[in-house]
Specification:
single chain, alpha/beta, TIM Barrel, Immunoglobulin-like, eight-stranded parallel sheet, six-stranded antiparallel sheet, binds 2-acetamido-2-deoxy-beta-D-glucopyranose
């Protein structure tokens, strides 16, 4: 009994010292899962199967097509890379699909100025049935990832019990820290506990994880985007305060460039994920993505807003009977991002509003830049009436900033 108490205290002491200084801004990059899933048939589909070739080709695109310079630096492997364990119990990749091993891929990513993310699952198996990290393997697997020079770990939660997760996620955080290598830690833990207190302790998560998946996997459809958005908005009073520099809610990857979203819906996902301070992890084929979708993902003002140093997650502040919703994210230097979002299904809607209606202060003159068109709307005072025209399932997004206080000239 005494021994048990001592062990428990040791665990708690470890948990309190895990701040790793990583991901002060939401991570940006590419993750294989949504687009490429567990496609392991390299005979039938050699260009799209989960293999080192796929990751090297995506790394080349990230480095050569302007993504890296904008901050899209993570190249993240997901499920279905594991071949098994060797005689010493160390994880090894599938030898046919990853013939040069994961350390080679990490070196390749680093040589291009990128970072490599890997996937494992705290439990008997990964979700797709590959060997998982059981509690007795946590330290060993953390050491393996560090030896390979991996930069991020997404730890899924299939095939584990709530007790195993409660022990295993803090244990992995401590094990990653003990390797001495900075490895960002993405925890799927809350998604397996319903995403809400009291089953989920977000204070604890923020201590041990850099980001966490709270809710269901995204699928390639607008319906899936809306179900995730609805869940995050319904629970925004719980979720909004727990996000911040180094610890983010993760509503899952961007679908932009795939098959399920229209142009308007792709722009809407990008804008909404940005006000939610979500990770910008693309899951699309960067070899064939269209110029139109590249424009959405490479919008410099959008990325600046997503990466705002305050790291405050936005909220839905208005839900109109007209099926227009307004989202607001506070930014550094008293600026804000505002998203006007239409859930209508008829035609472009003329939405009339004013900053007073959005509770902005009466003593300041603002200017807004439309994030997608670049248009400047100047001289906005609280009572100024404005109209934004929002397409069905689309957004208008403003970057709003003060230009002067009334009566006080601009500095
Ligand atoms: C994991 O495997 C062990 C040993 O076979 C078994 O007792 C346990 O029930 C399994 N756990 C889950 C959650 O499947
Ligand atoms: C481990 O934790 C300590 C204490 O929080 C921190 O200073 C250090 O940077 C961490 N190291 C790594 C590699 O995460
Ligand atoms: C949540 O975790 C924190 C940090 O470990 C702890 O101090 C707090 O007591 C926990 N809260 C609950 C309700 O368990
Ligand atoms: C504006 O403030 C009032 C009073 O605090 C509040 O009831 C209302 O919900 C706020 N509206 C918006 C759009 O934030
Ligand atoms: C703005 O619109 C409201 C409602 O339509 C109207 O009452 C008000 O006079 C208008 N304000 C200005 C400054 O035009």
């Amino acid at each position: 009994m005494l021994l048990k108490t001592v062990l428990l205290l040791a665990l708690v002491a470890q948990v309190l010292v895990l701040e790793n200084g990583l991901l002060r801004k939401p991570p940006m990059g590419w993750l294989a899962w949504e687009r490429f899933r567990c496609n392991i048939d390299c005979n039938e589909d050699p260009k799209n199967c989960i293999s080192e070739e796929l990751f090297m080709e995506m790394a080349d695109r990230l480095a050569q097509d302007g993504w890296r310079e904008l901050g899209y630096v993570y190249l993240n492997i997901d499920d279905c890379w594991i071949g098994g364990r060797d005689a010493k119990g160390n994880l090894v990749p599938d030898r046919k699909r990853f013939p040069h091993g994961i350390a080679f891929l990490a070196d390749y990513a680093h040589s291009l100025g990128l970072k490599l993310g890997i996937y494992e699952d705290l439990g008997n198996f990964t979700c797709m049935g590959y060997p998982g990290t059981t509690l007795d393997k946590v330290v060993q697997d953390a050491q393996t990832f560090a030896e390979w020079k991996v930069d991020m770990l997404k730890l899924d939660g299939c095939y584990s019990s709530p007790q195993e997760r409660a022990e295993g996620y803090p244990k992995m955080a401590a094990a990653l820290n003990a390797t001495g290598r900075p490895i960002a830690f993405s925890c799927s833990w809350p998604a397996y506990e319903g995403g809400l207190p009291p089953k989920v302790n977000y204070t604890l998560l923020a201590d041990i994880c850099n980001l966490w998946r709270n809710f269901d996997d995204i699928q390639d459809s607008w319906r899936s985007v809306l179900s995730i958005l609805d869940w995050f908005v319904t629970h925004q009073d719980v979720l909004q305060p727990v996000a911040g520099p180094g610890h983010w809610n993760d509503p899952d990857v961007l679908l932009i460039g795939n098959f399920g979203l229209s142009f308007e819906q792709a722009r809407a996902q990008m804008a909404l994920w940005t006000v939610l301070a979500a990770p910008l992890l693309m899951s699309t084929d960067l070899r064939t993505i269209s110029a139109q979708n590249i424009d959405i993902l490479q919008n410099p003002l959008m990325i600046k807003i997503n990466q705002d140093p305050l790291g405050i997650q936005g909220r839905r502040i208005l839900k109109e009977k007209s099926y227009i919703e307004v989202y607001l994210r506070p930014l550094v230097n008293e600026a804000s991002a505002i998203v006007f979002f239409s859930r209508r299904t008829d035609m472009p809607y003329h939405y009339h509003s004013s900053l007073a209606r959005l509770n902005f202060s009466s003593s300041v003159v603002y200017e807004a830049q439309d994030v997608y068109t670049g248009e400047i709307i100047s001289g906005l005072q609280d009572k100024t009436n404005f109209t934004v025209i929002i397409n069905p399932s689309g957004v208008v997004m403003w970057y709003l900033y003060p230009i002067s206080k009334l009566g006080i000239p601009q500095q």
